[in-house]
Structure formats: C-alpha cells, structure tokens
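Weekly sync, protein design subgroup
Attendees: M.S., D.O., the rotation student, P.L. (late)

Item 1: inverse folding check
M.S. brought a backbone from last month's batch and wanted to see whether the design step gives back something sensible before we order anything. D.O. pointed out we never logged the input encoding, so this time it goes straight into the notes. Structure tokens as presented (337 positions):
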C-alpha cells in the first residue's frame, strides 16, 4: 500500500502558481517599492509650513509614514524570500506551508514595527512587547514548540510524506505534515502482529521530534531495510546444501530493484566512517545451535519496508516447498518436539 506525496489543495496550487509567475511577482514588488518610497517622501512634505494646520497630529502622521516605509521594505524582502522558497524542490504541501509561515512572520514583524513607531516611549514599548511575548510564550508553549518542530522537519528533513517512520511509540506511514502536527497511517501497533497497516490514523504534535528518536525506514539514499526469517532443522541435515539452496530460492523471489540496491548498500557503507561490512555474499544464511539440540537457520535479506510482510510470506512458502522435496538432504524438526 503505497502512499504518494502529499497532494496540494486548490488554494495551495493557486498560491504556488502565483509565486512562479514572474509578472505577478514583479508587479507586487514594484507596488511595495512604490508604496515605501511614497511614504518616505511624504515625511519630507509634512515638514513644509503648508501642513502646519495639522498641529498635534504632525508627529503621529510622521510616525505612521515611517512605519509604513519600513513595513513596505519588509514586504519586499518577504516576497523575495517566498520566491526563493518556491524555487525549491519541496513537496507542494510543505512548500505552501513554508510560504504561509513566511507570511505569518512578516505580519508579526509589521505589527511590531507599527507598535514601536506609534508608542512615543520606546522603553515602554519594549517592556510591553516583552511582557506580551512572555505571556504568549507560556500560554502557547506547545503550539510554538510544534511550529518550531515543523520548521525543523521542513529544513532538516528527518522524514517526508510517504516515508515509513517511528517516532517514540508511534509507527506509521506519513500522510500529512502540517504547521502543528503530523499524521501517520499506523502500521503494526497493538492491533496487528505484522507490519501491515492497522487502519488507524495517528496524529502527534511536531514537538515530539525534539523529545524522541526518529526512525526512518524509507531513507531516500537507501530505501531498504534488513529482514530475517528463521526455521529449525536437525543435525542430520546437509548444512552446506541448505545454505546454497535457501540463497538461490531467496534470490529468485526478490525483485530486480531490490537486487540492484545491494550495490548501493555497499557504496553507502564504504562511504561511512564505520568499519566495512563484508556483504559480498547476498543474501546471508547463518546457523545457530538451539537449546533443544536443533539447528536454527537464519535467512537475512533486504526488502522494501512496506513490502516486508508480503515478501516474507512469499519466501517462506518457496523455501519450505523446495526443501521438502529433498528429505535426504534436510530434515525438519518433528512436530511437538
């Protein structure tokens, strides 16, 4: 059950389309620059004697115009940042959220600019803003942490829509990443003993990425994981023959894409500072002695994490069927022993 990338809504598509439209972008930037220059020039006009009749409102109007000048400058900078974000390779849903976040920050900065310019006492304004920020920080601690967590997810990319991940005790495929929370389509969980989807959705605050380890089973550079299957045979079995047979059967069941990733895995391991792992042989077959005097055959192979249950079942049926054809080469542990 594959999960495709997060599909944008109509509003998101329209917003992204406008950001890619050079004509719209240049028109808005030109309008912001014109507004800023107009406000700045008007401050000089106010100094003329012709406007002496406004009296006490002179300083207020002057401060409003100065605040407008700085605000238009912030809008130009914000529009430039949004256009750069739109050029990125992020999924459209995340790209839209990042643009909206930029607009939110721009709006907050403009409000602070106007509060600062309209307050005659800068010390009082600074104290007021500090107290407001402190109160909002306590009242909105979790949402703010989640918003920062969302920004971390977008910039650092510990996971993206479609990845199979584990965060704390939550296991699932990522279906949506929003400002405040992430939605998973649960696999396994307490309803299932396999790694198939349980049918439930999990929604957790983004702040959890700072409090828990994040396991990503769909790493872009190497989107496969190791899996293993074990079964028991007797000491009378031909272990060398069993090893060769199990390897050959497993290779027949694995698809071409999985086999091709073996070389990618070798390249990734060789590029890391850890000791190289000998993976010339693939898949692996290891033998262990069981406490009841059996031999445990442990088959280790790589698989797409979303296909592991299907592939495990496929390999088990093929291996058991082939080994049963050669009773003189391999003997299974008898039932009930």
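Designed sequence read out in the meeting:
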């Amino acid at each position: 059950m594959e999960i495709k990338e997060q599909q944008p809504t109509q509003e998101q598509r329209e917003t992204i389309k406008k950001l890619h439209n050079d004509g719209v972008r240049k028109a808005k930037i030109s309008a912001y620059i014109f507004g800023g220059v107009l406000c700045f020039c008007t401050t000089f006009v106010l100094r003329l004697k012709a406007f002496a009749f406004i009296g006490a409102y002179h300083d207020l109007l002057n401060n409003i115009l100065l605040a407008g000048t700085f605000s238009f400058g912030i809008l130009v900078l914000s529009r430039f940042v949004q256009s750069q974000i739109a050029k990125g390779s992020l999924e459209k849903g995340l790209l839209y959220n990042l643009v909206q976040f930029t607009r939110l920050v721009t709006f907050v900065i403009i409000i602070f600019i106007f509060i600062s310019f309209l307050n005659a006492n800068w010390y009082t304004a600074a104290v007021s803003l500090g107290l407001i920020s402190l109160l909002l920080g306590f009242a909105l601690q979790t949402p703010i942490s989640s918003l920062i967590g969302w920004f971390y997810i977008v910039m650092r990319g510990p996971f993206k829509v479609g990845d199979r991940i584990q965060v704390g005790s939550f296991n699932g495929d990522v279906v949506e990443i929003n400002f405040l929370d992430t939605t998973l389509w649960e696999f396994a969980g307490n309803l299932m003993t396999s790694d198939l989807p349980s049918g439930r959705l999990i929604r957790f605050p983004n702040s959890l990425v700072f409090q828990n380890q994040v396991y990503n089973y769909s790493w872009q550079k190497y989107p496969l994981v190791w899996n293993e299957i074990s079964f028991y045979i007797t000491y009378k079995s031909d272990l060398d023959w069993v090893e060769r047979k199990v390897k050959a059967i497993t290779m027949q069941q694995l698809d071409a894409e999985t086999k091709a990733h073996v070389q990618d895995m070798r390249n990734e391991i060789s590029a890391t500072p850890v000791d190289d792992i000998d993976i010339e042989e693939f898949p692996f077959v290891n033998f262990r002695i069981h406490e009841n005097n059996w031999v445990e055959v442990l088959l280790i192979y790589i698989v797409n994490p979303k296909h592991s249950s299907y592939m495990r079942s496929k390999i088990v049926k093929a291996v058991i069927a082939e080994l049963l054809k050669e009773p003189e080469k391999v003997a299974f542990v008898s039932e009930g022993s």
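Discussion: The two ends are 39 Å apart (CA to CA). The mean pLDDT is 77.
Action: P.L. to compare against the previous round before Friday.
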